[in-house]
Design a protein that fits this description.
This protein is α+β, with helices and mostly antiparallel strands. Helix content is 31%, strand content 19%. It has helices at 5-9, 11-30, 56-71, 101-115, 151-167, 191-196, 201-210, and strands spanning 44-50, 77-85, 88-95, 128-132, 183-188, 219-221, 226-228, 247-249, 252-255, 279-284. It is elongated and about 115 Å long.
Length: 285
């Protein structure tokens, strides 16, 4: 049976049917909803770099500016915005819709590698990037409170336990922890005393950094077994810093920061542990 035979035999009915379909399509087109904010997946990448202890001006000049110079050369980049805050730099790159996010991420990584030589050597880790959608907003905010443990332990539990589990949920794009509190040791130095020993503030910084290196310790290889040495040399308490030697002269320690005594700390008003001219106490950055 020919499917077109009934329409050929009845040309008037066929014409009326075609007009009816045309009118129905025109009316349906006028009734289609128009979304003011359509769901468009913009190729957007956000780069985050952290430099603890740096003010916004230092972050902008040492981190944000070198990275922006490299990212500005990426093909297909339409918008680049940056935010320099205390200890943190965030750069958001938005590409054209014709650009694939995978190839854009490769160009971003290449830009980070090219700018590595101009970034500060004291960065705790290289810049990290992630795909984001500027139209997305947090749909759930969770507050963590505890009457039994301290705030730094609550922050550590949120970073190491809660955040990875939430990120594993199907459909979750990003989980960020805000208001975190990490333990740290703040060191206040007497500049006049440091200069009297022919040292600089950078010498003190290098001595503290060298005392906090957690590296490979080596091992022993025997005819029947091999033993790897493992030890963590990182300092976790203020009292342990008292054994740090800042400078050596002729094979002997020439200056230690605890060589003079002070009954109280002029900076914080708290009683220092004599004999000490420095103020040591755990604080959060």
């Amino acid at each position: 049976m020919n499917i077109s035979a009934p329409f050929i035999a009845r040309p008037v009915a066929t014409s009326l049917l075609a007009v009816a379909v045309l009118l129905a399509g025109a009316l349906g087109y006028r009734g289609l909803p128009v979304s003011a904010l359509p769901q468009v997946d913009f190729p957007t990448i956000q780069i985050t770099t952290q430099l603890p202890g740096a003010n916004p001006d230092t972050v902008a000049s040492l981190i944000t500016a070198p990275l922006e110079r490299q990212f500005g050369q990426i093909q297909g980049l339409t918008t680049m915005t940056s935010t320099s805050a205390e200890g943190t730099s965030q750069i958001t790159l938005q590409f054209s819709l014709r650009r694939k996010i995978e190839s854009a991420a490769q160009d971003v990584q290449a830009g980070i590698n090219a700018a590595a030589g101009t970034l500060p050597a004291s960065l705790p880790y290289p810049p990290v990037y992630a795909k984001v959608n500027p139209a997305d907003a947090p749909i759930l905010t969770i507050a963590l409170l505890s009457d039994n443990i301290t705030l730094d332990r609550v922050s550590d539990a949120a970073d190491t336990l809660l955040q990875p589990k939430l990120a594993e949920i199907d459909g979750v794009g990003q989980v960020s922890v805000q208001g975190r509190m990490r333990p740290a040791v703040r060191v206040r130095v007497n500049p006049a005393r440091v200069a009297s020993y022919g040292l600089s503030m950078d010498d003190v910084r290098l001595a503290i950094a060298a005392a906090n290196v957690n590296g490979a310790k080596g091992g022993f290889d025997g005819p029947r077994q091999a033993i790897a040495l493992g030890a963590n040399d990182q300092i976790t308490s203020p009292e342990a810093y008292r054994g740090v030697i800042v400078a050596w002269r002729n094979g002997a320690p020439s200056w230690r920061p605890w060589s003079a005594s002070a009954p109280s700390c002029r900076a914080c008003g708290r009683p220092c542990r004599p004999p000490s001219r420095w103020c040591w106490w755990p604080t959060a950055r």
